[in-house]
Amino acid sequence: MIRFDHISKRYPDGTMAVDDLSFEVREGELVTLVGPSGCGKTTTMMMVNRLIEPTSGRIHVDGEDIATVDPVRLRRRIGYVIQQVGLFPHRTILDNTATVPALIGWNRSKARARAAELLDLVGLDPKTYGSRYPQQLSGGQRQRVGVARALAAAPPVLLMDEPFGAVDPVVREQLQDEFLKMQAAVCARRSW
Ligand SMILES: Nc1ncnc2c1ncn2[C@@H]1O[C@H](COP(=O)(O)OP(=O)(O)OP(=O)(O)O)[C@@H](O)[C@H]1O
Ligand SMILES: [Mg+2]
Question: What global pTM score does this model have?
Answer without folding.
Answer: 0.80
